[in-house]
Amino acid sequence: MNWEAIAAIGELVGAIAVVVSLAYLAIQIRQNTKQVAEQTKALQLEAHNSSAADFTRFRHSIIQSPQVASVWRKGKENYQELQDDERTQADELFRDFFWAFANTFFRNLNDQAVTNDMWEMTENFLRPYLELPGVQQWWTTSRPEYPPVFVERVDSLCDLVNSRSGNELD
């Protein structure tokens, strides 16, 4: 056997090794892709559960106390006409309510943990509240507490509901 034959055998072995390496790499990439997809689904489920828990806690704070429910109802109707103590309580209720939406919004914005369907459902839930005079009164004075990108999104929803109802957000 001469050196050319040995070189040819070496090239053949090298080519086979490259093919085997590429096949192994393809299998690893496929497994990694599957694992990433599973992790994404788990993250989306966790985000959904977390958002649902935020809103559930909020609703429970209202239904557990007739006095809190009364403040919530009156605040939605006309925030500005509330007594000082009622306004303080309504302010915190509205703040909790909007932070639950903000948390869902940022989960969607930052890591797409919230699916588009879930965010659309969340916006559909928020829109009727944005039509209420007391909620609009509160939002007008409280928007500086929230990040600008969230304020822009809520304002665009306010514009949408106001264009449909003929109201105007000051």
Short description:
By secondary structure, the protein is an all-alpha fold. The protein has one domain. It is 85% helix and 0% strand.
Describe what you observe in this structure.
With 170 residues, this protein is mainly alpha-helical. It has one domain (39-165). The protein is built from six helices and no strands. Helix 1 runs antiparallel to helix 3, helix 2 (66-77) packs across helix 5 and helix 3 packs antiparallel against helix 4. The longest helix is centred in the N-terminal third of the chain and has 61 residues, at 3-63. The radius of gyration is 28 Å and the shape is rod-shaped. The mean pLDDT is 86.
Structure characteristics:
85% helix; rod-shaped; mainly alpha; 170 residues
Number of DSSP helical runs: 6
Oligomerization status of the protein chains:
single chain
Structural domains: how many: 1
Taking all residues together, what is the mean pLDDT? 86
Helical fraction equals: over 70%
Largest sheet data:
none
Overall geometric form: rod-shaped
Task: Please specify the SSE layout and strand pairing.
Blueprint: H1 3-63, H2 66-77, H3 84-111, H4 116-130, H5 133-142, H6 148-165
